[in-house]
Amino acid sequence: MIPVSLALRNFLSYGEDAPTLDFTGFQIACVTGRNGHGKSALFDAMTWALWGEARKASSDRKPDEGLLRIGATDLRVEFVFDLDGQRFRVCRAFRKTARSGSSSLELQVFDPSTDRYRTLSESGSIRKTQTRIDNLIRISYNTFVNSAFILQGRVDEFTRRSPSDRKAILSDILELSRYDALGVRAREHAR
Question: How is the beta sheet containing 21-22 ordered, strand by strand?
Fold first, then answer.
């Protein structure tokens, strides 16, 4: 996956008018700055857009309301990335309501013939759309934060896991399930 752009609205320290971050102008980047200036928030925004997960208090089931900028009632993240020669856009939003909150999720693919994005989302189903995203990017949030992205203050996340959890994470990273599927197909073919 190659990041293309990231747009935030009312996400943690980023307010209504946060400029879109365009990744196309560089091959590698180093994000630096003082504590509390929103560096980690950029990475949290990407993981929240893709998996609906980001930093959260241990008592929170979902991070949504905790990611909302203080004083705001809704947040939105739009993450555009290239994968396998195609461009995708994931838009995730959360709106605080009187009782709890409502979320929305959209997955889109860019269609060069129309020069527009078309939806790949399952109509009205965040869970089914999330499954499509998971299948598309072929990595879970758990695997991502234990391999490619070290969460702030949790550098030992992988080593604190049980041996079976570490094995499952490594299996997921190496996509060993593909070999299991190939083995099943080979046995069927042999029969």
Answer: 21-22, 2-9, 74-83, 86-96, 101-111, 116-119
- How many CB atoms within 10 Å of residue 79? 23
Rounded Cα gap, residues 86 and 107, in angstroms: 13
3-state secondary structure 25-37: CCCCCCCCCCCCC
Residue 145 or 72, more confident: 72
pLDDT tier, 59 (very low <50, low <70, confident <90, very high otherwise): low
Query: Cα 140 from chain centroid?
Result: 9
Which has the closest alpha carbon to 65: 136, 145, 10? 10
Question: Angle 126-130-105 (CA atoms, 0-180°, nearest 5)?
Answer: 45
Tokens of 84: 């396998």
Q: Which two tokens stand for residue 55?
A: 């930093």
Round the average pLDDT of the chain to a whole number and report it. Answer: 85
Question: What beta strand segments (E) does the chain contain?
Answer: 2-9, 21-22, 74-83, 86-96, 101-111, 116-119
Which tens digit of pLDDT belongs to each residue from 80-134?
999 999 999 999 999 988 887 889 999 999 999 999 999 999 877 899 999 999 9
